[in-house]
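Researcher: Quick one. two chains, 836 residues in total.
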Amino acid sequence: MLGAIARRLAGMLAVMFIVATMVFFLTRLAPGDPASLMLGDQATAADIAALRKTYGLDQPILVQYVLWLKEVASGNLGQSIFLQRPVLQAIGERAEPTFFLALFSILIAALIGIPAGIASAVWRGRHADQTVSGMAMLAASIPSFWLGLLFIQFFSVRLGWFPVAGYGDPGAGLAQRLYHLVLPATVLGIVNSALITRFTRASMLDVLSEDYVRTARAKGLPENRIVLRHALGNALVPIITVVGLTAALLVGGAIITETVFGLPGIGNLVVSAVLRRDYPVIQGALIVIAGIYVMINFAIDVIYTLVDPRVKT
Amino acid sequence: MSDHTKGTSQQGWSRRELAKFIAGAGLLASLPAGSAALAQGAKSVNLAMIGEPQTLDPMASTADLVSGIMMHVYESLYTWDADLNPKPMLAADMPKVSTNGLSYEIEIRKGVKLHSGRDLDVEDVIASLKRWMEMTPRGKAVAASVDKMEAKGSHGLTISLKAPVPALLTHMALPSGYAAIMAKESIATPLVNFVGTGPYKFQERRPDQFVILTKFDGYSARSEPANGYAGKREAKIAELRFIPVPNPNTRVEGVVAGQYHFAEQLPVDSYKRIASTASIKPLLVMPYGFPYFVLNTKQGPFADKKIRQAYQLALNSTEMMLAAFGDERFFKATAAHFPKASPFHSEAGGAAYNKGDAAAAKKLLAEAKYDGSTIRILNSKQFEFHHRMALVMAENLKEAGFKVQLDVVDWATLVQRRADTNLYDVYVTHSSFLPEPMLSPPQLGVGAPGGWDSPAKNVALAAFNAESDPVKRGALWAKVQEVVYDEVPYIRVGDFAALSATSAKMTGLVPMPSPAFWNVDLA
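Model:
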């Protein structure tokens, strides 16, 4: 077991190295120059060259890569060109809203998606199934920015129940900050519930047609017990996968939702960095996101072994 | 580590807070209307800005967003009145200029307090101006003509020039990459202590959440009546909160819902909604800026002046501005590069403007023996109005017989590509409206994208830049404008307005390029 975990960890490190390398070179391949953007259209070529030198952008790309990799290996993700602060600090300042938004969204998505998928599978072909499938299709098709603006219009402007945007007034406690996440988390939860519903339905349909389910029914076990204990327990592996991967994606920043609701999250940070070609922030944030993604994948694998002992780590 | 960013300590949470949240969530239905539930103290305002300022150092960036916030903290020697004429702010009066225009004697106002509590003196001014001349593009341009700066006593300053700089005061008054006066002991790069003389002082910045400025009780106001940015300044609101809200629709909804007291740069199609909502009112600033197209005069088809003139003849500016801004309330298609109130107002050369004459353009193209080379229109969808204008421009050009190609890229790519004349024939951009011709567009200077350089340009601009008399400069600008219309290094498409919205309770906000919140109150 320990050996298997060690092998997985080594694999994760290799993945992170590949990600870091790809992120670095793909970022530099994109046209655009942070120095030109920062200095504006009145800057001379000499000004731009001087600023490029300040940030080491004048050096050969391989030299930049090696220097950066050394820093990353020592835990330093560099200094943001535009934010004038360490990348890790910039990410840390934005981690809380992104984390809680991801957590609440995935909870809402699972609370909607898993029961809806079960109902859809149990009543396959009936009105309930058609309704759930239709709603899932609708949720998957709705752009999150549109749903977000609709929610703002209705719940914030018309009813006045929630703030339009932001993450709380200065000095706001956690309760007020989280209160600002209710609408965006609901929007993301609804949108992401579609996939969970579809996966739960498909997985449950597979399991419900298994011999042991037929045997359980023949033994006269209550239908609730058959569905929730025997069928759902065995259908969980793909459901956990999709919930886990959705969570990983959300931790990386729900870019559009963060923008619409004016949330100071990691998604906003990455988008701004890409538009400004703030290389250290793009590289640093993507490495952190990739790291979280890899960790969640690892956690999913561990959970598999707990849910289904047949699966070996 | 930047110590001007507080707040991470406030990100912590406790079980008690979590319990509060859960209880709060359960009581949502019983909450009063949202805006009331979120109301600030009576004397603080939430101001929705277009994004996060990249820095709070007013000399480290020319972005309007940076100066729009920090102009409340830092003042300059001169500033603009409502007609964008330079007027004294930290200077006691207008300078005494020698007859040859090479010496400026400036008296600094006495008794002006810095936010640190100390009195401002000439050493602070010299240190700040030096930093401005070392750091900012416009400061560097001025520095090239500055011989020396000398203190005369504790509040006198003499600037000696090697060559006249007729726009010196305008440069000093310009609130963008500006000549902010700061306490000399606070000067550092990066700037971490923001010690100025303004009616507001820096309180806190939390990235992507807010910048907070609070009233400076020791502020020393001028005695003249307020006029634009000039005259008496008074902080009537205790706390200004500048909040980045990048999504324009969210800014609209936020100001409609009452969460924001002010929202800037709103989509023009929200005007009707704003105007019909009793709790808010629209605010239009005209002219706010101007879109312009820069032609590659170095190489490719547009190296030929006749082809550039044919291009100019083909364009219908009114159509382009309509496509970009939707309604005539928000733009003005005008040949004059400066409005009527400006000493630089002139229609000179304007006969070539906004013709949309495909037949005449075709004829000129035939005379120029245009070989059908593709015209590459570099533009970015990041500014939606740029792209909409590029689409109309392409149709105008096709009608006149040009072969065109739209190169749509993100803004960062455009900024890089415009520096290489191999990569475009024309690009779309825009500028804020500035009252002095030499401040924008940069094509009037040397070495700007597009590579415009010609004897006619050099003669006209040399005469203009050597003249200090404002009346004579007006006439000389007309000649420069004529050359621009004749040589077509760029097309100034027209003027556009900025639409903002404020709470109906907000009083005293005057339409200026960057909104200033001193003298503003909440009824």
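Chain A is about 75% helix and 0% strand.
Researcher: Thanks, that's what I needed.
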